[in-house]
């Protein structure tokens, strides 16, 4: 990584660097040597050499900041398309079951838009657009809801009332001697 803690420069930091490069251009035009420019602007001689080469090839525009590379972002139209595709379900995109996982959504974003997100970034993107984490309810295919309700009403009350009477004692397995 180019900067400490992977941070890069803020907009203000990039603007400050750009001002230094433009000061170097003024010195290039006056015919100053790279060594003198580096000392005056408190930068490395190698940086001045690169700036001078960019200035010769592209003029002053070659020294302007390109801005932050930023993180991948989906625009509003792309997000609408992603939501439509998610509503179609995983089966429509080649996954055998009806579960969207973050890894699958990440893969779908890559296929549709050629943008690479991390799994965490995918979660933040979905959360930012109102999607929530859901746990699928697991139920047997053979489940009979009427039979379950009948059991709850008739059988469970009978089973629930059959409790053993409480006995004095200890839950410990150790035998207590009464000496």
Automatic annotation (TrEMBL):
InterPro entries: Homeodomain-like_sf, Winged_HTH_dom. Transmembrane segments: none annotated. It comes from the Bacteria. Residues 160-179 are annotated as: Disordered. This is Winged helix-turn-helix domain-containing protein. It comes from Streptomyces fragilis. Pfam families: HTH_23, HTH_33. Residues 97-154 form the Winged helix-turn helix domain.
């Amino acid at each position: 990584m180019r900067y400490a803690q992977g941070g890069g420069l803020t907009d203000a930091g990039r603007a400050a660097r750009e001002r230094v490069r433009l000061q170097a251009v003024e010195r290039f035009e006056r015919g100053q040597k790279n060594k003198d420019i580096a000392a005056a602007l408190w930068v490395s001689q190698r940086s001045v050499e690169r700036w001078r080469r960019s200035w010769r090839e592209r003029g002053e525009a070659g020294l302007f900041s390109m801005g932050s590379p930023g993180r991948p972002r989906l625009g509003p139209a792309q997000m609408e398309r992603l939501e439509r595709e998610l509503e179609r379900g995983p089966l429509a995109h080649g996954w055998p079951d009806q579960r969207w996982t973050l890894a699958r959504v990440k893969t779908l974003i890559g296929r549709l838009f050629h943008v690479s997100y991390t799994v965490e970034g995918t979660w933040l993107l979905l959360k930012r657009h109102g999607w929530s984490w859901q746990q699928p309810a697991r139920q047997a295919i053979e489940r009979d809801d009427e039979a379950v309700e009948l059991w709850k009403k008739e059988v469970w009350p009978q089973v629930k009332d059959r409790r053993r009477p409480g006995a004095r004692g200890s839950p410990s397995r150790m035998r207590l001697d009464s000496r």
